[in-house]
What we know:
two-stranded antiparallel sheet, 5-stranded antiparallel β-sheet, alpha+beta
Amino acid sequence: MEAAVERSRAAILRGDVYCSSRCGFNCKRAAYDRAVIEADALATCLGEGWRPEVWENCGWCYAAHKGVMHVHPKRQGSSIAGAWEVSGYTCYFNSAKQVVTDAILPEDAVGFAVQDARTLIERLREDLAAIAQ
């Protein structure tokens, strides 16, 4: 049964369509190719240790991840046809307390998330100090 599930998730190339039977949106190969290129560029932009991710979810999606951080583009347009514009990025810092930030540039989204996480740490220290007295 598991092998059948995995096969149904695999994208199949049929002409200009590159889509899995589970999706059924007839996603275009051009959208996949663009997602791969942009995921690689995003991971490269963010630096050492960042890895690209590409997946299908009613269109081709992408992100870059490093440890507990994931950076996703904000896109307008078709992820099925590959006709989208990136208007910014969202960084998910998935630690014990999730920190989510938005920015126009991916580096800024990461920077804001790190700043917010440091602020959270300081607030937790202050709160713990107040109750420990």
